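Subject: sequence -> structure tokens, single chain

Hey, anyone have a minute? Need the predicted structure for the following. Not urgent.
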Amino acid sequence: MTYYLIRRMVNYIFLLFIAITLAYFLAGSFLNPLELYAQRQPPIPPQILEAELTAKNIYPGTPLLERYWTWLTNVVTEWDWGQAPNGDIVNDEMRRRAFVSLRLVVLGAAVGMVGGVALGAWTATRQYSLADRTISIISLILISTPSIVLAILLQVGAVQFNRMTGTNFFEFMGETGTIGNYPGAAFVDRLQHLLLPTISMSAMGLASYSRYQRNLMLDTLGADYVRTARAKGLIKRKAVTRHALRTSLIPMGTYFAFAVTSLMLGAAITERVFGWHGMGIYGVNTILQQDINGTVAVVAFSGACTLAGAFLSDVMVAVIDPRVRVS
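Reply:
Had a minute. Here:
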């Protein structure tokens, strides 16, 4: 299994390098930092502007291949991802925002995946019951609701709850707010501000994963090996968990790997609505501000998250499916 995982990791790293390279060439071809200075009054002399952008390795007049090689050399040798047209250091922005997004994405993904699998497996064992039909309707409503609408509805509900109770139980704008004087107040404040964004991030995943898991569980519950296990006297709970659930998790493990990309897209909306300064909103701003280096750094971060998710799914599949370990 170790050789299998090493081979998969090497493949993912190679694919990540190709994706980052393509992102740089696309960003370098279509983003033009000169447009930021076109309306400056008084106008900046072309010689000064060329020298400034050349020093940042983002001057459009420099051949793209030359700019790419300089950028790649700086990243490999010094881990320097460059500068934005306004002079911001991309490394500093990434360092400041990456953990913010990871808190949202990792927690939202964990809640959505674990909760979705558990809910889907539970409803599959109660097919066509009132609980199954109710959860199915709620899941379809959540799947059909845009992320921004769900986030705003959560905010409205939180405000109404605070008014009805006369408390500030829900604090959701920004990463921190009013911190009390009691022990652990800072930690509680972080949790308060993380609660609604996490619900917003995980709700759609919870709904969609539960639908996938339910359908997969229904297929495996009717399989011959499950019926044989039951016929030999194995109780229903063990037949479901040891045989049906374990087999149905194999395709789900592969699906989880590529759900990270959609979570990153949802994070941009969630960060905007709840006032978080993470990688999602930073990625949008880099494109609007013609920031080539920042855009590529965001793509690299998203690709690394997808790579990590894909690798973890490979580990999960290898643990669950003995055929992978044997081969």
